[in-house]
Automatic annotation (TrEMBL):
This is 28S ribosomal protein S24, mitochondrial. It is found in: Mitochondrion. The keyword Ribonucleoprotein applies. It comes from Caerostris darwini. The gene is mRpS24. The lineage of its organism: Eukaryota, Metazoa, Ecdysozoa, Arthropoda, Chelicerata. GO terms for biological process: translation. It holds the Pfam family MRP-S24. Residues 1-20 form the signal peptide. Belongs to the universal ribosomal protein uS3 family. GO terms for cellular component: mitochondrion; ribonucleoprotein complex; ribosome.
Length: 166
């Protein structure tokens, strides 16, 4: 070791007290919910994916409509129940309608009615599509003990819902 290195090593019983001011540039960038651009603009985005999270209330509507923030007599535990139910509905729809939905699942709650909306491809036969609609409505109605309605729109190809390439 050199003499300089030996002089910097402190004995274990001495405590080095140093006060320093650390400064850094302010980082006000928000990254959540934004998609990274590609060099050749080959990544397709739907309209909902194109809008940044801070533009939701200006350009588009929310993916879940409910009234869980209103006053309820049962200690207002409905907000957490609604979030868990919405998570379950999205997972159920992803598993049941695997690779058929080309948009996000939109959940609307009106009083005691749950309405699930979305865009699907026309890759299924009509009889299978009607079976899936009935099966989903019946299963979710039984699980949540309230009527469930499914509203679907169909497109010929997944490329029809592309809003912009980034």
């Amino acid at each position: 070791m050199t003499a300089l290195c030996r002089s910097l090593i402190l004995p274990m019983n001495k405590v080095l007290a140093v006060r320093a001011l650390s400064t850094s540039a302010v980082c006000c960038k928000t990254q959540a919910g934004k998609y990274k651009r590609t060099k050749n603009q080959s990544k397709p985005l739907t309209y909902e994916q194109f809008n940044a999270p801070y533009q939701i209330h200006h350009r588009k509507s929310w993916n879940t409509w409910n009234t869980s923030n209103l006053f309820e007599a049962d200690d207002e535990i409905r907000a957490s129940q609604t979030a868990v139910e919405d998570f379950f509905i999205r997972k159920f729809m992803f598993g049941t309608w695997h690779r058929i939905f080309v948009s996000d699942v939109i959940i609307k709650r009106r009083h005691n009615l749950i309405i699930i909306a979305g865009i699907v491809t026309q890759s299924l036969q009509a009889s299978k599509l009607y079976f899936l609609i009935g099966y989903t409505e019946e299963m979710l109605s039984y699980i949540f003990k309230c009527p469930v309605k499914i509203e679907l729109q169909s497109v010929a190809d997944k490329k029809d819902v592309v809003f912009k390439y980034i």
